[in-house]
Amino acid sequence: MYGWALQGDFFLPRLQWLVVPGELTIVTGVPNSGKSEWIDALLCNINNQCGWKFVLCSMENKVRDHARKLLEKHIKKPFFDARYGGSVERMSKDEFEEGKEWLNESFHLIRCEDDCLPSIDWVLNLAKAAVLRHGVRGLVIDPYNELDHQRPPNQTETEYVSQILTKIKRFAQHHSCHVWFVAHPRQLHNWTGAPPNMYDISGSAHFINKCDNGIVIHRNRDPDAGPVDVVQVCMKKVRNKVIGQIGDAFLTYDRITGEYKEADEAIVAKVVKQQIRQKSTS
C-alpha cells in the first residue's frame, strides 16, 4: 500500500489518499490542466518510495518527450539548456545514463505504431503480459478517446462504456494492479473557469459510478486569481473510506523539473476566493 499526502488543502489541514492495488482511478480535467504531468509525478513518487513498476499506454505523448519528462522528475534537473530551465544546471551525462537504466527498469510502454487505434482488449492483454513478466503494479491508460471505440449497432454508448470499465476493473482486481484511466470532459458551454465535475466526462455517467476513485485535475488560468502554476487536485470519489476521503488539495507545479509541491496558504486562499466569485456570477 502506498500513501501520498496531498497537502495544502484550504479546508482540510491534510488530505490523504492511499494508492492500493486492484482499484480503478478515473482522472479528468479540461485540456491543458496537467492531468498527464500529475500522474507521471505520482508514479515517480510511488516508484521512489515503494519500488512499483508501471506500464504506460500514453497515446498523446511522444516516446522521447515522455521519457524526458519522467527523467526530469526523477533527477530533478532539466534535460535541456533551454529557456524553460532558466539558470538551473541541466542533468549530467552520468545522471542521464543512470536515469535511462531507471526508466528501463521502472516503466514499460504499450504503443500502437500503425494507423489503427488500439482496442481496450489489446491494451489489457499487453498489460497482463507486463504484469506477469516484469511484476508491474500500475497501469496508465491515457486517454479514453484515443482508444478504438467500434461498438455493435445495437449497443448504446452508455452500455459500451460500462463494458469497458468492467473489463478494466476485472483486470485490476485479478492482477492486483492499480489502473489510472484518463477521460476528457465533454465540451463545456459557458465555462467560467471552475473545475469540471466527474459527471461532465464525455460518454457516460458510468465513469463516476463504476470507478473506485474519481479525481479532477484543475489548473488556475487567471493571473488575477494567483500564480498560473497552482494546480487543484479534487478528490471527487473515494469508494473505500479506509484509503482516503473526498476534498481538495492545492499544489504548485515546478515547470523546470515537473515536480509538484505544497502550495502556500495565502496563494490557496486567493484561488479559492476567486472560485467562489466565479460560482456566484455563473
Automatic annotation (TrEMBL):
A GO molecular function held by the record: ATP binding
Signal sequence, renumbered to the chain: none
Residues annotated as domain SF4 helicase: 1-267
InterPro entries found in the cross-reference section: DNA_helicase_DnaB-like_C, P-loop_NTPase, Twinkle-like
Xref: PROSITE patterns: SF4_HELICASE
Gene3D superfamilies listed in its UniProt record: P-loop containing nucleotide triphosphate hydrolases
GO-annotated biological processes: DNA replication
Protein name per UniProt: SF4 helicase domain-containing protein
